[in-house]
Design brief:
about 70% helix; Rce1/LyrA-like_dom; transmembrane
Length: about 260
């Protein structure tokens, strides 16, 4: 009796997306964390941001003019939340490499680069349309509002650039398409459900109501990278590429090379 050859894995982005619905959700043996872990991490993010804001106001510091509070307020809540997510996987699971799907290969990087480039195009088109709808005065992100007119020193501007382009994307991917995605998969929901929910929650969690629709567009190619590879590396790379030009613009504006 002839033995059937195994099915070849799908190649190309379109084929990979089509194959998603036919593939079972990955097993999560040993994972003892779920939505409660994500809610804990989100609480850490929100409470730390509130604490930093309250500390600045108590000390009479203007958040928009203090270099220290600009850096601390922008970076610390996200880094703390991502650190808590990693700790959860050690305490209640198998560690971040397995639970958050942090293993990677070259193909993941290639897919992340392609979808990151696609995301740049989508973001540019969406930003142009969105700014015409809401006006240029409302087309600035929360970090952009903090940096705008602050006259950051070169060292602080470089630190902010590194955060926006590299550290921030890694931390956000750990929280949303790592921890939250894993919590959804643990409920045996479909990967399309994980993609949809993480995309919407990622956009809403930035707490910028006017920009939520734009953030959803930004998040779609990043989520697709996670969807078709099942690993976090592709979405991290896509997120980094997507943030690079905005981060570079932020750097050039903050040091006065480009007009605000």
């Amino acid at each position: 009796m002839a033995v059937e050859p195994p099915d070849e894995p799908p190649t190309g982005l379109i084929a990979s997306v089509r194959a998603v619905g036919r593939e079972p959700a990955p097993e999560r043996a040993g994972q003892r964390w779920g939505f409660g872990a994500f809610l804990l991490v989100e609480a850490i993010f929100i409470l730390s941001a509130v604490f930093i804001t309250a500390l600045a106001r108590t000390s009479g510091t203007d958040l928009g003019s203090s270099v220290t509070f600009i850096l601390v307020g922008s970076m610390v809540p996200t880094v703390l939340a991502a650190t808590a997510a990693v700790v959860v996987t050690y305490v209640r699971g198998n560690g971040p490499w397995q639970d958050l799907r942090l293993d990677w290969n070259r193909d993941d990087v290639k897919i992340g680069l392609k979808l990151g480039a696609l995301g740049l195009v989508m973001t540019y088109v969406a930003a142009v349309v969105w700014s015409r709808l809401v006006g240029d005065d409302n087309a600035t992100s929360a970090i952009g509002e903090l940096v705008d007119g602050a006259g950051l020193p070169v060292a602080a501007a470089v630190v902010m650039f590194c955060y926006v382009c590299f550290l921030g994307p890694v931390c956000e991917e750990i929280i949303y398409r790592g921890l939250l995605w894993g919590a959804i998969e643990r409920q045996r929901w479909s990967r399309w459900a994980a993609f949809t929910l993480t995309t919407l929650i990622f956009a809403a969690s930035h707490l910028e109501p006017l920009r939520t629709s734009l953030l959803i567009v930004i998040a779609i190619p990043i989520g697709i990278a996670r969807l078709i590879t099942r690993r976090l590396t592709a979405s991290v790379v896509a997120h980094v590429i997507n943030n690079f030009l905005p981060g570079l613009t932020l750097l050039l504006v903050s040091v006065g090379v480009m007009p605000a």
